[in-house]
Design goal:
The protein is an alpha/beta fold. It has 2 domains: 80 residues, Methyltransferase, Methionine Synthase (B12-binding Domains), Chain A, domain 1 (Orthogonal Bundle), CATH 1.10.1240; 120 residues, Rossmann fold, CATH 3.40.50. The chain is built from 9 helices and 5 strands, in the order H-H-H-H-E-H-E-H-E-H-E-H-E-H. Helix 3 packs antiparallel against helix 4. It binds cobalamin. Cobalamin (B12) binds next to helix 5, strand 3, strand 4 and helix 9.
């Protein structure tokens, strides 16, 4: 029998190989994929987020835990899709136009996936039209924008203005982040939320979809 505590520990400690092998064994043993996600992997990522907020984990630990989570999720994702398990909500995330930094964005995306969200990753150098298309065509409830350059932060403002101009501002919540972005800037440009870290992004997204 697969030892499920090992799955929790593998995600918490960022051991991607162990996370994968325990997940494979658990599936073989007949564990429902959703239970693996809800009872072990998401709680482990929640704990990673808590340790980060308490300054016991730092960005490298977040990255390796997120990688372990991702490698186990790769096995579960097709099975979850088959089983028709509904995601908590849908988020479109991207690094804004002109900006190629994606480490923080990927971390936010992985934490959101870990939190049960379906994440549409639009990549880097993402112009307003792609965010707008994700809202219109994929029905995302949350748009998450990342910027690492002071010169690309205005793209966040432009994207928000274009979302407004497209008449879909009331269909979507917008959160922003990235090293140079501040709470003040977020409120100046009319974003709904700002956070300086990936784990708080999950709490914010949950609050958005739960009303
Ligand atoms: C790695 C890096 C690169 C790599 C990027 C690789 C990659 N795949 O991302 C490379 C080498 C390509 C690069 C290129 C450049 N870079 Co660079 N880069 C960095 C560096 C060293 C680390 C950034 C990083 O990944 N941090 C770690 C992640 C985890 O942190 P983070 O992104 O802030 O994300 C966290 C939070 O901000 C938050 N978050 C992030 N996004 C979001 C989104 C939402 C919605 C939420 C809620 C939260 C959130 O959660 C994350 C996790 O907690 C920084 C310096 C630094 N120490 O920050 C410079 C830096 C960002 N780069 C800089 C510059 C100038 C450049 C270049 C212009 C250099 C050049 N002259 O070519 C180019 C620009 C290329 C481009 N068009 O984008 C400057 C920016 C200065 C400024 N004020 O604008 C910095 C600050 C370096 C410096 N001190 O000068 N860079």
């Amino acid at each position: 029998m697969a030892d499920m505590q090992q799955l929790y520990d593998a995600v918490l400690n960022g051991d991607a190989n162990l996370a994968r092998s325990v997940t494979e064994k658990a599936i073989e043993d007949g564990f429902p994929p959703k239970d693996l996600l809800d009872s072990y992997m998401i709680p482990a990522m929640d704990e990673v987020g808590r340790l980060f907020e308490e300054d016991e984990y730092f960005v490298p630990e977040l990255l390796i835990s997120a990688r372990a989570m991702k490698s186990a999720l790769e096995i579960l994702r097709p099975l979850l899709a088959e089983g028709g398990v509904e995601p908590v909500g849908k988020v479109a995330i991207g690094t804004v136009k002109g900006d190629l930094h994606d480490i923080g964005k990927n971390l936010v995306a992985a934490m959101l996936e870990g939190g049960g969200f379906e994440v549409i990753d639009l990549g880097v150098d993402v112009g307003p039209e792609k965010f707008i298309a994700a809202v219109k065509e994929k029905g995302v409830q949350v748009v998450a924008m990342s910027a690492l350059l002071t010169t690309t932060m205005p793209s966040m403002k432009t994207t928000l203005q274009e979302i407004q101009a497209a008449g879909i501002r009331d269909q979507v919540k917008v959160m922003v982040g990235g090293a140079p972005v501040t709470e003040r800037y977020a409120s100046e440009i009319g974003a709904d939320a700002y956070s300086d870290n990936a784990s708080a992004a999950v709490t914010i997204a949950r609050s958005f979809v739960n009303g």
